[in-house]
Amino acid sequence: MIIKKNIVIKNNSKLTTTFQINSFIYEQLFWEKPHFMQLTKLFSILIISSLFLVGCSNDDDITAIDANKQPLGSRNSSNNLLSDLNFKGLTIEIVSVQGFEPTITAINEFRTFLENRLFKPNGITINQRSVASSNLAPFNIEEIKNIETTNRVQFNDGDEITVYIYFADGSNEKDTNTKVTLGTAYLNTSIVIYEKTLRALSNRPNSPMLSSIETATLNHEFAHLLGLVNIGTPLQSQHEDTISKGHCNVKNCLMEAAIEFESGMMDILGSGIPKLDPLCIADLRANGGK
């Protein structure tokens, strides 16, 4: 059963050179205990076990659905999201399990993040609707992909590019007592946010507000769709973390893999939600973004 709740926040692609990933790539955002971690500790480990091979593809062989379900970092996806060369507008399809919808504050902050980085003269539309639980939690990525196949209804259309974000009512099956996954960018236009996990974290003493955790997770995961760091958006300078590939080595950057803080919630809120550092912004601008 699908429970529809549409909220609209309103303000063709030529695919040639591709990056094909030999083995499965996906990015995971973790929260590590103890409780007195600052917000940017959220940005932990990018799991990438792959080899990039350059090849060519026939534009006519790619359907709209196929174009939205490519490996992370492939087929000029980051440039398509950043620039207005092939796509003039962006639609975000947010599908949440009923009772696990994101906060309005997080969606507004997420929208601002997108507007500050993307060239989309036709605007950015965020559609939200709720669906029944899959009852599959805890999830593995294949289950998340199957849920997307069942629930996703919006794909690239003309000069409108789309991204699908699923707010799940459970956790990742690989979570442990010391490390939990907050979100994963698992395909070129697909993200999962483990909303139940985010809510559990926000209820702990001295933790950030839920909206702050949601905003940081959304921004971090979407930045991976934009090709950061060195995942489809070429580096303009050497700032990729040599240990945690796909992350930035600049302290306090939104894309830093692991940043530890010493104090509790007030210091976390005082620091604010992490932002992209100038080196990451330079990469995005060189690939068609703002």
Radius of gyration from the alpha-carbon trace, in angstroms: 18 Å
Say what the CATH topology is: Collagenase (Catalytic Domain)
Strand arrangement in the largest pleated sheet: 1-7-6-8-10-9-3-4
Domain count, please report it.
Answer: 1
How many helical elements?
8
Distance N to C terminus: 40 Å
* Overall helicity: 25-40%
Tally the beta strands. Answer: 10
Q: What portion of the residues fall into strands of 2 or more residues?
A: 15-25%
In round numbers, the mean pLDDT is 80
Report the CATH superfamily.
Answer: Collagenase (Catalytic Domain)
Report the sheet with the most strands, covering strand number, pairing sense and barrel closure. 8 strands, mixed
Structural class per helix/strand content? alpha/beta
| CATH first level | Alpha Beta
Low-confidence runs (pLDDT<50, min 5 residues)? 1-27, 34-38, 40-61, 259-269
Topology as H/E string? EEEEEHHEHEHEEEHHHH
| Coarse morphology | globular
Q: What is the CATH-assigned architecture? A: 3-Layer(aba) Sandwich
Condensed summary:
This protein is of the alpha/beta class and 290 residues long.
Account of the 3D structure:
The protein is of the alpha/beta class and 290 residues long. It has a single domain (2-286), classed as Collagenase (Catalytic Domain) (3-Layer(aba) Sandwich). The protein is built from 8 helices and 10 strands. It has helices spanning 64-67, 77-82, 104-117, 141-151, 195-202, 210-225, 265-271, 278-286, and strands spanning 2-10, 17-21, 25-32, 46-48, 52-56, 89-97, 124-131, 160-167, 179-187, 190-193. The chain has an 8-stranded mixed beta sheet, with helices on both faces. It has a two-stranded antiparallel sheet with strand order 2-5. Helix 3 (104-117) packs parallel to helix 6. The longest helix is centred in the last third of the chain and has 16 residues, at 210-225. The protein is globular, with a radius of gyration of 18 Å. Residues 1-27, 34-38, 40-61 and 259-269 have low confidence and may be disordered.
